[in-house]
Each structure stands twice: as C-alpha cells, then as structure tokens.
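Dear colleague,

Following up on yesterday's call, I've attached the two folding results inline so they're easy to grep. Please treat them as preliminary; we haven't cross-checked anything against experimental data yet. The first protein's sequence and structure tokens come first.
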Amino acid sequence: MASTLGIAAFFLLTELVQRERAPGADVLAVTAEAFDLAVEEAEPGEEPGTVIPAAMALLGLSFACCALLVAGLPPLPGFVAKVALLSSVLAPDPIDGAAWTLVALLILSGLASVIAMGRAGVRIFWTSEERTVPRIRVIEMAPVAVLLALCFALTVAAGPAMRYLDAAAQWLHAPQSYIDSVLPAR
C-alpha cells in the first residue's frame, strides 16, 4: 500500500523536477554518454559550497522520502511489509529453497532500489551544471505532501493496516462466504 502511495508521489514529483531542465537536456545527456564525450571538470579555483534554493531542497527531500518508501527501509511502512512477508515465509520449520530464494530476492530488490534511487537523486539534484530553479506553488506541492503524510501515517498505524490486509487475505483464501452473499439462495 505504501509503495503505491510512494510511486504516486514520484509521478507527481516528476513534473515538478522536470520544469527546471532545459528542453532537449535528456537527448544531450544520452548523446554525451553514447559517444563518451568528456564532461568538463570544475576548476580547482572555484569556491566550494553552493546555496541550495528552497524549491530544490523541498523537491530533493520529497524525492528522498519517496525513494526510502519504495526501497522499504526502516522504520517506514515498506519495511513493516517486508518483515511481515519474511516472517510468513520463514515460519515453517523446514525452510525450503524457494523460501530462501524469495528472501534473497526481497533483500536484493531493496538494495537495488536504494542504489538506483541514490544514483538518480545525485544525477538530478546534485549535478554541477547551471540550472534554473523551478517555481513551485503550494497547491502543486500539497498532493505530494499529502501522499507522503499518508505513508508516514501507515507507519504509525501499521497494526490496524496489517489486520485489515490479513482479513482481506483470509477472504481471498475462503471465497465461499462471499459467493453465498452475492449469489441468491435457491
């Protein structure tokens, strides 16, 4: 549930982040990588430390929160879901090879998403090229904030959410009561 909300916030952030990019910047970046064109290094005489505009800081913080949600790092709800999944997979006494494969894939997918999101965040927010700062209105940032707040509320209310999801799973495994309530009795 939290990963769906996190991905929705990512989609909303995409347009806000793309505003500051020059038209055709993606084509130039792909072309530079394809032809192995060298990127100019900064001169050593330049003064380190750049002021980060508030809009970019807000977008970067939102991106980091979404990335942590999708990766399922503690104490966020994605981690709670991973622990629930791992505890049910590792519950049987003789653990078979398929369970260990699922555990390894679950952990490696979290690691891969942290690496991918980290690289994307560095490339988007910490590149040294001159850029224009996007103008962001509160009304545009409010849906992202609401989605992230819902994700953090899922962290606090993990118990009721897990009970609801467990009840839904029980209904899915025993569909006869649903069938009896939907189809009329003969």
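Below is the second protein, in the same order (sequence, then structure):
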Amino acid sequence: MESPSIASSAPGPSFLGTLALVFVAIVALFAIDTFLAKVEQSETAAQAARLFREGQRLAQECRSADSIARLRAALALSRDNPEYQLALADALFRAGRLADADALLTTMLQNDATDGGANLLMARVLAQQGKLEAAEFYYHMAIYGRWPQDAAANRIRARFELIDLLVKEGNRKALLAELLPLQDEAPVDLETRRRIAHLFLLAGSPGRAADMFRQILRENREDADAYAGLGEAEIASGNYRIAETNLEMAARLKPAEEDIRKRLELARQVLALDPMLRGLGAAERYRRTRELVELALDSVKPCAGDGPSGTLQTLTDEAGQALQRRLSPAQQDEATEANLELAERLWQARQKECKQTTQPGEEPLALVLAKDSAK
C-alpha cells in the first residue's frame, strides 16, 4: 500500500485564502471597534466638558442647585477627573452642604494627599464647621502641597487664609510663626507689605511692623497709611512721643480720617498723663499720680456695686484717703511712688473683679500703668 505523498497533505490554496480573509476581517472589526470606542469616549468627554462648563457658569450666577446637578452629571461621565471632583466639592461648600463636600474631599485626598486645591478646600470646610485645629492642619498641607499651576501664588493665598483664621482665634504665637516666612515669600507690592506690617502688629511684634512701615516711608514720604501704622507700632512699643509725631504726619496727610485722629488723641492723652516722662518736675509728677489714682478709682466704682469685695473696699477707701490729703512739696516725692503703686493695684483689681472689658475711655490709663509696671 502506497503512503500518501507530502504534496497531497499540505493545505490547499482555497484554505489559505479563507484564513487570510478571516484574519483581515478580524483586524478590520477590531479597528472599527477601537475607532467606535474612541469616538464614544471623545463624545463622552466632550459632553462631560460641556456639563462642567455649564456647572461653572451656573455657579458664577449663584444658581447652586443647578450648578451642582451639572457638575454631578459631568463627574458621572468622567469619574476620575480631579478637576470635576474639586469643582463639585467647591459648589457643595458654597451651597452650605458641608458634609457632602467633606465626604467628596476625603475621597480625593485618600487618592492624593498632596493635592493642594483639595487640601485648601478641606481647610475651608473644616473652618466653616468650627473645627479650627483640623483646618490649620489642612491649610499647612495646602501650603506645602502640589499645585499644577501658579504654585507660589496659591501657596501664598493659602497662608493668608490661615493667617486670617489665626487672627480670628487671637492666636498670636501661631500668627507670628506664619508671618515670618510670608515676609520673604509674598509679593513686594505696596498693599501686601502694608497688610503684613499690620498683621505683625496683631501678632504682638511691633518692632517688625515698625521696620516694614519705615521701609515703605523711605520709598514714599507721603504715605499716610504707613505713618499711621508706624504710629500704632510705636504706641504698642510704648514710644508715645514718636507715635505722636508719626500720627501727626498721618493726620496732616489724611485730615478727614477719624481713626487716625483718635489714635493721635490717645498718644497725646498718654503723654499728658504719664508721670515718668523725662523733664517733669516733682510737683507735676505728683499731680499726675493723683490723677491716675482718681481715674483708676472711677474705673473700679461701676463694678464695685453696693457690696464690693473686701479687696475692692479696702482699695477704694485707701484711694479716697489719698485724694483727700494735702501734702507739702517735701512730702510729695514719697507720695508720688505710693500713688502710682495704688493706681496699679486699683487697675489690677478692676481687671480681676470687673466683668466688662477695658473701655475706650480707660485706654490711656491702661497704657500708662502697663508701661510703668513693665519697668
């Protein structure tokens, strides 16, 4: 029996042609499917972008509900788009839906903890909720986080927002810690430098504030706001004569500014009341300490009521006796020190036992006694 030849076992031309046609068809179908998928993706992306733009426009028109709906729809079509996520979170925040914004931002930050925009918005949400310590943490994350565009400007903006929060809290130590790097990072425009100088005052650093105001005045000798700021810094430093000079310049340049006139009057009142100014005679020192006792006594009386504490009663009796004394010039030197110490004790009792805060009319007295007690 003959064995089949090798030639008869090979595939025929018709089989190879069919196989080639099938392969071509598969490739063509794959290409068509890929093309259609790309078209669909492109159309979906275009639709999502359109909804995103509509959502932003509606947000600018303060149509919160419509804006949120459009942005949700855009995010549904492009779920991993961080720009859409952040825009929706911002819209929720502005609409007062803080819990929803918090939840969305938490998800974003789980995916990327360095996202500067998401951290900044989370800080705002937490600040709005009254969670100030947590807000400070996220502000710092925003300051040192990743910003795809305008990184320096966005970090400065985040730091200024944190500073505003610290000002509201009255946290001077933390405020100063944020201002020190900002002094080097912030733009050098006049308005920003003025703002930082005033913030140094709020942070309890009048020396730094004064340096910045002086630098501004070296560049512009007619800057009334800088003179006023420098005057305020000198008041905080206890340099009332220098404060008066700078506030006079500010008042001359801005005569209609009531706040400047009030601060100038305060400096003048302190100078007229301070018994420790150089050049005063013994009689004038004594007269001023009597006035301090009288003012301190007047500040205590309203909160003493009909039944003052034993401490207040003792002090008011002592003050009454001191004011009734008629002393010879030789006795006035010793009485000057006693009056000053009595005024300080009365003011300390006023601060401890009276519920009301220092009133504007009491500020000269408070400043003079604080200056003397610091020596």
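For the second protein, one point worth flagging: The two ends are 130 Å apart (CA to CA).

Best wishes,
A.L.
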